[in-house]
Amino acid sequence: MPFDHNDFYHPLLLRLVPAGARRALDVGCGTGRLARRLAARGLEVDALDPAAEVLEVAKALGSPGPGAITYRHADITTYPLSSSRYDVVTCVASLHHVPFQTVTRLRDALAPGGVLAVLGLADPSTVRDHAVWLGSVPTNLLAKAVVAAAERLGGGADPVPRAPIRDWDMTLNDVRREAARLLPGSRVRVLPFWRYLLTYRRA
Ligand SMILES: C[S@@+](CC[C@H](N)C(=O)[O-])C[C@H]1O[C@@H](n2cnc3c(N)ncnc32)[C@H](O)[C@@H]1O
């Protein structure tokens, strides 16, 4: 696998899982890499994606345990989510595939004290956003070179289907404004590697 800007943030996302959490929802799970890490932490995971080809790969890989993973071939905008069910809801590079207001469905699916963590993509707005973006260029080149060298040494991995991607149409200021409106108390942080982190904890 080449260096993956989304997987790089899995440890950060795992640190956001509330203590004692039991149930997780991963939205747009792709081949299930984050779902497996959540299950390895002992969570029962519902992992949802409308792309059948990547979901098949995820299902074939199953769960490393101790938590179970239930994969659902579904669209988050229409899937009937139970309210107040999940201790953590994650969206990795998937929120821009759906209308931003979908976050209200995810918010309602959080149990009290539950955390929504969105690793998202949007265009930079402020000078700081641009500076973080620009600073990502040399780090990215270095990370890619290190991972490519490690792959050559290790003989490389079998190719897997890539999860569907699409362009985003929001700026970071759009995200900040909509997050403040729909998820009062949420926080939006700009991150290296052209990502942002939106976090929201349900009271
Ligand atoms: C860029 S991929 C990211 C996949 C995975 N989270 C990862 O980090 O590898 C975006 C994913 O969002 C999924 N997606 C697109 N529309 C969706 C929807 N309406 N509901 C849920 N997931 C969706 C895509 O099928 C794709 O797997």
From TrEMBL:
GO biological process entries: methylation
Q: Could you confirm whether the keyword Iron appears in this record?
A: no
S-adenosyl-L-methionine is among the record's keywords: yes
Record-linked InterPro entries: Methyltransf_25 (IPR041698), SAM-dependent_MTases_sf (IPR029063)
SUPFAM superfamilies associated with the record: S-adenosyl-L-methionine-dependent methyltransferases
UniProt superkingdom:
Bacteria
Instruction: Please name one Pfam family that this protein belongs to.
Output: Methyltransf_25
Alphabetic keyword roster: Methyltransferase, S-adenosyl-L-methionine, Transferase
Q: Which GO terms describe its molecular function?
A: methyltransferase activity
Task: Note the CDD domains from the entry.
Answer: AdoMet_MTases
Domain named Methyltransferase is located at 25-114
Its recorded name reads: Methyltransferase family protein
Native organism:
Saccharomonospora glauca K62
